[in-house]
Amino acid sequence: MDTYLSFYLKNNRIHIFVKALREIGCPKYICFMLSEEGNSLLLAPYERKDFHSHRVPATVYNGKSSLELTSIRLCRLLATEFDWDCGKSYRVPGKVSKTHGVIAFDLNNAREIEKS
Known about the structure:
single chain
């Protein structure tokens, strides 16, 4: 797999690896789309800020910060669908498609992030 997406369910936070965002063209806005089957999550560039998108601060691309988003709805939806423990964190593998400029995450292969 090319990248990962981490869900910190206790805080309803999603960590997106910056390298993956660079691979799809350093978008200013991104959105998540769930497949009809519900087994994959697509992260794609988006044209503008609205109820479907998240803004990516410029500081993310110059290395001054990482990208963590808050999404109670997405975290709860996935936790319910995949029977994830809301007190734990999960890492989901993803594949970057430079051809399509998106990242597809395989929700069936999520793994619990072990505390160190």
